[in-house]
Design a protein that fits this description.
The protein is mainly alpha-helical. Helix content is 50%, strand content 6%. The protein has a two-stranded antiparallel sheet. The protein has a two-stranded antiparallel sheet with strand order 3-4. It has a two-stranded antiparallel sheet with strand order 5-6.
Length: 327
């Protein structure tokens, strides 16, 4: 049985979480991250891979982008178009703080660090030359009429060999998959905090460039009791439209969707009139009245000044906003 040493117990998460006293949360035994922060970092890497194809489409003239349509010629481009081009060009080098980085270049540099540290670096020139001959033979064989049903298997083998020997074209999807595959190793390294910072910066830039940056709304304060004082945490909580959980940024308490009623009960029953709800959600009052009719909100006020429960309104907003993002 493994026992935790005093040194292990003092290892703190390097990914930015904080207790009420300002200390980082204790890292999982043997790692340099706590589990909630590690889960979020893994999800961020996977989201980069998911959003990157949209970024590529936005970089193509005539494609969709946050900057709208660009006319041909030598006129000035929009800042949004410039950001898209910078994020997709491996030659991009950030000169000042806040400048965009190349997504592929940053992910590849971290992936190469892992390959080098773990002994999974690229083979020498002789091995690569011989590997290229094998890849070419597999390519030729897979396209022969007699190969029949073997072509799919041969193609998969070819791709695996090419990737192992560094002969295939690097992609954001491939580098992201490699980093996720080695995630257990990454979260044990002293540099995981720097890695997480760069992933978050890339993701924020990609979300902005693709127009997928998500708005969030305040939903109250965290009622989770402090381990030392027993008093409620009190940190303000926010929720995104497509979220399936709310995470307190301070105490890291998680509120999955099936516990939102519990969270709502802890907040009491905050109510507002249509004007306040419109300002809160930045949704026109007429739209809110339509939602009220469609979703059957209960009036907690009077006929002259109707008041509606914010949690019911939030559910209506999230359902419609989430469907819009999914589409």
């Amino acid at each position: 049985m493994t026992t935790r040493t005093d040194e292990d117990s003092e290892v703190r998460c390097l990914l930015g979480c904080r207790t009420r006293t300002g200390e980082a949360f204790r890292a999982q035994h043997g790692y340099r991250t706590c589990d909630p922060c590690a889960d979020e970092l893994r999800a961020d890497i996977q989201e980069l891979a998911r959003l990157y194809p949209e970024l590529i489409r936005a970089a193509v003239p005539g494609g969709n982008s946050a900057g709208g349509r660009v006319s041909p010629g030598y006129g000035p481009r929009s800042p949004a178009r410039d950001a898209v081009l910078a994020l997709t060009d491996r030659r991009t080098r950030a000169e000042d703080e806040g400048d965009p980085h190349s997504v592929l270049e940053i992910l590849s540099s971290w992936a190469d660090n892992v390959r080098k540290d773990t002994g999974h670096g690229l083979p020498d020139a002789t091995a690569r030359r011989e590997g290229q001959l094998l890849v070419s033979w597999l390519d030729f064989t897979a396209h022969q009429p007699w190969a029949g049903k073997l072509d799919t298997s041969l193609e998969q083998l070819r791709e695996e060999i090419a990737e192992q020997l560094g002969l295939s074209t690097r992609t954001v999807r491939g580098e992201s998959a490699f980093l996720v595959e080695w995630f257990d190793y990454i979260t044990r390294q002293y540099w995981v905090g720097d890695f997480a910072d760069e992933v978050r910066t890339l993701l924020a830039s990609v979300r902005t460039a693709t127009g997928t940056a998500e708005s969030s709304l305040p939903v109250g304060t965290c009622p989770a009791p402090d381990e030392t004082t027993g008093q409620p945490c009190g940190t303000r909580l926010r929720v995104r439209a497509d979220a399936d959980r709310i995470i307190c940024p301070r105490c890291r308490t998680r509120w999955p969707r099936d516990r939102w009623d519990e969270l709502s009960d802890a907040q009491g029953t905050p109510v507002s009139d249509v004007a306040a709800l419109s300002a809160w959600l930045t949704v026109p009052a007429g739209t809110l009245r339509r939602w009220r009719s469609e979703d059957g909100w209960t009036n907690h006020g009077s006929r002259r000044r109707p008041l509606y429960e914010r949690n019911a309104v939030l559910e209506s907003w999230q359902r419609r906003r989430g469907a819009l993002l999914a589409g």
